Known about the structure:
- It comes from Nocardia jinanensis.
- This is DUF1697 domain-containing protein.
- The protein folds into two domains: 2-78, SP0830-like domains (Alpha-Beta Plaits), CATH 3.30.70.1280; 82-180.
- The strands form two sheets. A four-stranded antiparallel β-sheet has the order 2-3-1-4, with helices on both faces. A four-stranded antiparallel β-sheet has the order 6-7-5-8.
- Helix content is 32%, strand content 29%.
- α1 packs across α2 (53-68) and α3 (79-88) packs across α5.
- The chain is built from five helices and eight strands.
- It is globular and about 45 Å long.
- By secondary structure, it is α+β, with helices and mostly antiparallel strands.
- The N and C termini lie close together (10 Å).
- It has helices spanning 20-29, 53-68, 79-88, 151-159, 168-181; strands at residues 2-9, 33-38, 43-48, 73-78, 100-107, 125-131, 136-142, 163-167.
Amino acid sequence: MTMYAALLRGIMPSNPNMSNDKLRGVFTGLGFESVASVLSSGNIVFATADTDIAELEDRIQEALNTELGIPGGTIIRAESELRDLLDRDPFAGFTHGRGTYLTATFFKRTGEAPPVEPADGDPLTKIIGYDASARVFLTVIDNSTSKTPNFMAWLERAYGKDITTRTWLTVQRVLKKIDAVK
């Protein structure tokens, strides 16, 4: 059995169909084991012997749409991919805090490395880089001003909806949850 994290796009905890209980129910209904949720923002960990990531993503997304009306997107990473990313320590020297968010934008497909700088030259976003093995774009977002960074909107315009962003703290919490349920 391999442990995976499903990073679900478009989850709103205030929507009753998007509660952690219902999300876990879909994963359990698909026959997955060690199903657990992380926070209330669409992060589900699970175990399965299946290894075809694209097939898993499609199967899970179809079930979420059919059973709960969630059309969003499902991006899966194996525990080993997330652990290797964490071990590489891409944010060395940076601290996640109230004014500075360390973010990881996960891409569904390979070969879509973003350019080194966002097209709109957003001064509130520092590009750390693209980690090809984890298919993740790493950035530091300056939240210390009242001005809102345009980076997330730029990413979606440039790469569509087959991406999802998590804070670095959430990525760490996902791995802690995997460790807790194995």
